[in-house]
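May I ask you to comment on the folded chain given beneath this request?
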Amino acid sequence: MMAVLRLSRLVMFTMLAVLCAGAGAAQDYPSRPIRVIDSFPAGGNTDVLSRTLGQKLFERWGQPIIVDNRPGAAGNIGAEIAARAAPDGHTLLMGLTTTLAPSMTLFPKLPYDAVRDFAPVGTVASSLLVMLVHPSLPVKSTKDLIVLARARPGELRYASSGVGGPLHLATELLKAKAGVDMVHVAYKGGAPAAAAVASGEVQLGFASLAASLPLIKAGRLRAIAVSTPKRSSALPDVPTIAESGLADFDITTWYGLLAPAGTPAVVIAKINSEVARALKLPDVAERLSLLGLEPRTGTPQEFGAILKAEIALYAKIIKDAGIKPE
C-alpha cells in the first residue's frame, strides 16, 4: 500500500511540475524576437500577411517580428529551415497548403515531413481561385466549357503558374472530374499566366482573385466560376464549380502558421489566441481583402486536419494525372 501511495504522489508531483513548466513557458514567451519564415519572395500574399500580423503581435508583445523570406524549390527551402529550428515558438512558418501539401507527393526525397516535423498553430486566411476564359471563347459557364472541351479534345490550352502549382493542379482536378482533355502551358508565375489568357495566347486558366480581378473588371477576362464551395463576395454573381455540376469540387488555398514539432502546447495556444485577436481587427481585415484573402481563425487541431486532407487531395490529383516535378 505504501508503495502505491508513493507512486501516486510521484505521478502527481510530476504532473504538477509539467504544468508549472508549461505555465512558465507561456508566461515568459516571447523572450526575444520572433522569426516568421516565408518561403516566397517579398511582396507576395504570404509576405504581406506575415508582416501585417507581425505588426499586431509586436504591438501586443513588444518583441520584433522578423519576416525572413527564403524562396526557392517550390517553397521547400523555407519549410525545411523552419522544420529544423528550435521548438520554442521563436521560429514560425507562414505555411501555404497549396505548396506544402503537393510537395509531399511531388518530391519523394523531401528533407522534411509537413505532418511529422511541424506543430500546427492555426489557420489565418483562405483564398480562392477563379476560372477564367478569354472573352472570345464561346463559353459563359463551366458547363459550356466542358461541352466545348469534349467537342474539341486536346485543342484547348490552359495556363498555370508552373508544374505542380495550385493553378495546374486545380485544372487537372477539373479535367478529371469533367472527363476532358486540355493542354497545359506553364508560365513563370500567376500574373504571367493570367496575362496569357487575357492576351489570347491560351484560352483559359485558373488565377488568384488578386491577379485576375483588375483584368475581369476591365473586360479582358471572363470569370465563369470560383474554385471554393462558397461564392466570393468580390464576384457574387460568379457561381462555384460545384454549383455548375461538378459536385464536391473544392480547391481552397489555406494560409496558416506552423511551428517546429515539439513546441510547447501552451506557447502554441498563446500564439493562436493573439493571432485570432489580430484577425478580428478592422484594419487587418481590410488589408487582407485587398489581397483577395479572407481571415480564417481556427484551432491547431483544425489546421492539422486541413493539412492532412489537402495532402491526400493533392496526392490523388498528382498520381492520377501522372505529374512529375520539373
Q: What stands out?
A: The chain has two domains: 35-127+252-321, 129-226. The mean pLDDT is 93.
